[in-house]
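Here's what a typical entry looks like (Multisubunit Na+/H+ antiporter, MnhG subunit):
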Amino acid sequence: MTVVAQVLVFAGVAVVVVSALAMLRARTLLNRLHLLAPVTTLGAPLIGLGLALATGWNLGSGAILLTVVLLAVTGPVLQSAAGRVEAQRRGAIDEDLPS
């Protein structure tokens, strides 16, 4: 594994660990969703890019990068949808408003 790949994987794992530790202290769903965002938008892409660099450019690294792209695109959308449902359940926003 190259030094660049090691640094990327280490940085991604650090983001995930820090978010997980902070999530242990979060009490509400909205706070937990807020702490999940760095994992899907920063941690996973760093880990995926580092693993792709470590394995070289082949079919396996293509699958890793595809997974990272799908996670980076769908993660924020799913978090926003879950946050909206929770806010509607709490009565913080009107259910009849368009999304």
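The CA atoms of residues 85 and 95 lie 9 Å apart.

More examples are in the samples folder.
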